[in-house]
Amino acid sequence: MKKQNITVTGLLLDVRKRASGSMTDENGREVTWDDADILTLLPYGATKGQLQKYTIHPKCAKDIYGKTADVNWGAYVELELDNNQITDINVINDPFVENIPL
Asked: Which pTM was predicted?
């Protein structure tokens, strides 16, 4: 089932390019992945610190990188997701922007 037009909020931890690769899981099965742009988020309300990694939609990557270029780690953000891929980001609050010069 395709998930459309979902928003998620949380603390921004990382935005990066992930290279393709593979590994063997604990059951001996090979797991592979493709190149992708990944955003790591600590979702608002996560009670046990469960981090979430979201793939950035390829057509939106340039815009997402532009919007996060000067954003500090720990900024409170809202992600717009389509089929579990980020299509937009809104920086709600970057508490360090006035205290820590970039």
From this structure: 0.83
